[in-house]
Write a structure and sequence with these properties.
Elements (H helix, E strand, L loop, with lengths): L3 H24 L11 E5 L6 H17 L3 E5 L6 H8 L7 E5 L2 H8 L11 E17 L7 H10 L5 E4 L5 H13 L4 E4 L3 H10 L4 E5 H10 L2 E6 L27 E9 L4 H15 L2 H8 L4 E2 L4 H21 L6
Parallel strand pairs: 1-2, 1-3, 5-6, 5-7
Antiparallel strand pairs: 3-9, 4-7, 4-8, 4-9, 4-10
Helix pairs in contact: 2-8, 2-9, 4-11
């Protein structure tokens, strides 16, 4: 039988242990349910382009699904690097994402030094969809076909210019690939987004543009721009582009240059938060409003898992690295 002194010491030890346990619980509060504040979706282009359109259309339904507003933050410049870098350096808590494009996986091949570690800075959320780029000119342009463009470019090397939404973007690569396969010299004019590039195309400051279907679909439909060709392997199913030939069938065999959109969060974002964002994004692209807005402009909706997107993006990075190297494409 324990004496009173031993019992007292035992009770003291038990109470001390319980106090430490309770104190530990108080010192580490449970993580609040995600999300409990607005979410920022960075668009690394100026307002008005295809990426901006896709992001803003998705943000409405994502916000409703998450119970918090999804706010678009346009951070254009440096071929998407400025906006992408801002997300890479954000807290990995799910409250900051980037709407990435082909430039995301091409920049490592074009840029000798990025301000972030491309392989370790991001966590995939979802591949939104894939669409064609479109080769367009003003409605009053004398260029009526891909052949006309090739003939004019060969007749006066360096005189014609093509616009893109930025160095390293799918539109830039589409133009550079076109130049290399057709052996033509067309001057690249990069912009900080499709919106300002289209403005200058309409104003006559540039001759042609390789642009995403989402960015120029409405202009083609209204007759303000003329589509000469699409950059995909097969013709687009979009209403405004259904009769537009591919560049390959227009005399440039082997030509293919797709465009795509996908969501990334900073690396280290908790798996349950990624899953929540993926579910909200998936719900957003399945709405009738989103489908009606983007499918009419050629976007083939994906909406798969983070793992699916990661596999696709790595395949794209390898494919474009080969194209960049073989065609001596530079970031300019």
């Amino acid at each position: 039988m324990l004496n009173p002194m031993t019992l007292a010491r035992a009770r003291h030890a038990i109470l001390l242990t319980l106090a430490c346990a309770v104190g530990g619980l108080v010192a580490v509060p449970a993580r609040a349910a995600f999300p409990d504040k607005p979410i920022k979706l960075v668009v690394p282009f100026a307002p008005g382009g295809g990426t901006d359109l896709v992001a803003r259309t998705m943000a409405i339904t994502m916000g409703q699904e998450l119970g918090q507003p999804v706010i678009i933050d346009n951070k254009p410049g440096a071929g998407t690097i400025i906006g992408t870098d801002a997300v890479a350096k954000s807290a990995p808590d799910g409250y900051t994402m980037v709407m990435a494009t082909v430039a995301h996986v091409v920049n490592p091949s074009l840029q000798p030094k990025l301000p972030y570690n491309h392989d370790k800075a991001f966590a995939p959320v979802m591949l939104v969809g894939i669409s064609p780029n479109v080769l367009v000119v003003r409605a009053d342009s004398p260029l009526k076909s891909v052949k006309d463009l090739i003939d004019a470019a060969r007749a006066q090397p360096g005189k014609l210019s093509f616009a893109s939404q930025g160095a390293g973007t799918s539109a830039h690569l589409a133009g550079e690939l076109f130049k290399n396969l057709t052996k033509t010299d067309i001057t690249h004019i990069p912009y900080r987004g499709a919106g300002p590039a289209i403005t200058d195309l309409l104003g006559g400051q540039v001759d042609v543009m390789f642009a995403t279907a989402a960015a120029v679909g409405s202009f083609v439909e209204s007759g303000k721009l003329r589509a000469l060709a699409v950059t995909t392997a097969t013709r687009s199913t979009a209403h405004a582009l259904a009769k537009v030939p591919t560049i390959a069938e227009s005399g440039v065999p082997g030509y293919v240059a797709d465009s795509w959109y996908g969501l990334y969060a900073p690396a280290g974002t908790p798996a349950d938060v990624i899953a929540r964002l993926n579910a909200a994004a998936k719900k957003a692209v399945q709405t009738e409003a989103f489908r009606k807005r983007v499918e009419s402009e050629g976007l083939v909706i994906n909406g798969g898992s983070p793992q699916d997107f990661d596999k696709y993006a790595k395949g794209e990075e390898a494919r474009w690295r080969k194209v960049v190297k073989e065609n001596n494409i530079t970031a300019e």
